[in-house]
Design a protein that fits this description.
The structure is a single chain. Helix content is 39%, strand content 17%. The chain contains 17 helices and 14 strands. The protein has a seven-stranded mixed β-sheet, with helices on both faces. A five-stranded parallel β-sheet has the order 2-1-3-4-5, sandwiched between helices. Strands 11-12 form a two-stranded antiparallel ribbon. Helix 4 packs parallel to helix 16 (360-380), helix 5 (122-133) packs parallel to helix 6 and helix 8 (186-196) runs parallel beside helix 10.
Length: 438
């Protein structure tokens, strides 16, 4: 089964499918997880300590809240695949940490907060339950956590957060040291496109494709991508900006395609999520326009999810820069050591074998990432996890490889060029990781 790693545009998806669920009804009767079928909105699980160390961990616990989406309905519509079992691996890792002395002597109290991806505002509801009701010490934001729930955690409730996806630059500034992400900021990821593909973009007319959304993608286009392009003597022949309203956006598409055709555009930089890009690509194909797509981790372009929504004729030959270790399995590369070690570790703790390249690795990798980072942060600064995260020098993580904060709120800066190959249906790496701005 192919793993879909990233959720590129849950806000847009929610807007289109609003008729599928009622925000009021869903918020009052959310889906529960297997670990706590009787819970209301969130799954709340306290990890039990090992039998021999329960008495030793008497310090105040570190309350860890995990925000993650329910993808059940989205998967039914073909917009995502479930993330697999998250609760089991997280519980097992928390118990293992406690059995081995906790976080610098403090026991972990794990609480899982699930939100409905298709219900507008439900992620913020989960944020409020985590920060105000449960009063967690740190929030771990998994796939699909971006925009409003991030500012809810870090700004409005002044709580530490570590997330997978990169955020707009202003999010880090406003968080005042309480936000850390594994992916670069959206601004950095978009600037990397211009740096990595300057020659290709200079060879023929190109366009920039963007949408107005709450994730800050278009803000980063204006603040970072366009200025970076200009600094390299590059100017898009057309800049497409689709409205956040689906009906308005649909009316824009024919007009924008006419402009692209008139300008002779051959390459399009994608800065938006797959949900907006895929139908636009389909409209281009219907109009007989053959273009090469270029993107990055911003908007989740460099992910398998894009390929699930765009046909081979639309994505074949697409180019991207990514910090993730994508493409190793189908492209014939050896499994990264951090991923193999994590699979074996979680399988040993849960008693369930985990095969490489399967959906079950998603939950395992997320759990390893969270607790390896928390352990490193606590070792650096037991009484101030935010300071501890900022002092993480280098740590090798599944999916992301070497991660270094060391005073920077984003953990990864080196990127690698990848190309989508239709024959293997995979992003194929081109060369090693490099600094796009060196």
């Amino acid at each position: 089964m192919k793993i879909r790693h990233l959720l590129a545009a849950p806000a847009a998806l929610a807007a289109l499918l609003a008729g599928c669920s009622s925000p009021a009804d869903e918020a009052s009767d959310p889906t529960t997880t297997e670990a706590d079928a009787d819970a209301d909105t969130n799954t709340e699980t306290t990890a039990e300590t090992g039998e021999d160390t329960t008495e030793e961990l008497t310090a105040e616990p570190v309350v860890v809240g995990v925000l993650y989406p329910d993808l059940t309905v989205a998967a039914q519509f073909g917009f995502a695949e479930p993330l697999g079992d998250l609760v089991g691996p997280f519980e097992a890792m928390a118990a293992d940490v406690n059995a081995n002395g906790g976080l610098a002597g403090r026991p972990v109290e794990l609480q899982m907060f699930q939100f409905d991806l298709l219900v507008d505002g439900d992620a913020v509801r989960a944020c409020l339950e985590a920060t105000q009701d449960a009063e967690v010490d740190v929030v771990v934001g998994l796939d699909g956590v971006f925009g409003d729930p991030v500012t809810c955690v870090t700004d409005q409730n002044e709580t530490l957060m570590v997330a997978l996806d990169g955020m707009p630059a202003e999010f880090y500034d406003n968080a005042e040291g309480r936000l850390f992400t594994l992916l670069p900021s959206k601004d950095e990821a978009q600037r990397a496109i211009a740096a990595a593909f300057a020659d290709e973009l200079a060879a023929a007319p190109f366009a920039v494709f963007a949408t107005i959304d709450t994730g800050g993608d278009y803000d980063a286009v204006e603040a970072s991508l366009l200025p970076e392009l200009a600094a390299r003597g590059l100017e898009p022949a057309v800049t497409v900006v689709l409205d956040a309203d689906g009906e308005v956006a649909a009316s824009q598409i024919p007009i924008e395609i006419e402009q692209l055709a008139a300008a002779g555009v051959e390459t399009i930089i994608s800065t938006s999520g797959f949900f907006a890009t895929a139908p636009f690509a389909q409209a281009l194909t219907a109009a007989g326009l053959d273009v090469t797509w270029v993107g990055s981790d911003a908007g989740g372009f460099a992910s398998d999810l894009y390929a699930s929504q765009m046909g081979a004729d639309q994505l074949d030959g697409a180019m991207a820069v990514t910090v993730s270790q994508l493409g190793w399995s189908p492209a014939g590369f050896d499994e990264p050591a951090a991923e193999a070690a994590c699979r074996e570790r979680v399988a040993g703790l849960t008693g369930t074998p985990i095969e490489a390249g399967t959906l079950e690795t998603v939950g395992a990798f997320r759990a390893c990432i969270a607790f390896d980072l928390l352990t490193a942060a606590a070792d650096n600064s037991p009484d101030d996890l935010a300071a501890g995260f900022g002092a993480i020098g280098s740590i090798d993580l599944p999916t992301y490889g070497p991660v270094t904060f060391d005073g920077d709120p984003t953990g990864t800066s080196l990127v690698r060029r990848v190309t989508w190959q239709a024959d293997c249906e995979c992003w194929t790496p081109e060369g090693d990781f490099f600094d796009p701005f060196s």
